[in-house]
């Protein structure tokens, strides 16, 4: 897989990785297991999983870093 920028979209037609809703669910479960953070509801997932940068910022916020 080619490298992509941290602000590249994770989902949708412009995404270089082309993730779908099943991928979002798997990422959500993995984040909860690994970091103890929860993304509750579609709106929260869409807000914080738009790209890697937003997702990393959300994890840092949840851990108070």
TrEMBL record:
Carrier domain residues: 1-63
Q: Name one Pfam family in it.
A: PP-binding
Q: Which domain of life is it from?
A: Bacteria
Name the UniProt record assigns to this protein: Acyl carrier protein
């Amino acid at each position: 897989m080619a490298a992509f920028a941290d602000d590249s979209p994770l989902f949708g037609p412009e995404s270089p990785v082309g993730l779908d809703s099943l991928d979002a669910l798997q990422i959500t479960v993995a984040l909860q297991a690994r970091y103890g953070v929860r993304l509750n509801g579609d709106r929260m997932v869409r807000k914080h999983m738009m790209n890697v940068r937003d997702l990393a910022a959300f994890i840092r916020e949840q851990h108070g870093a």
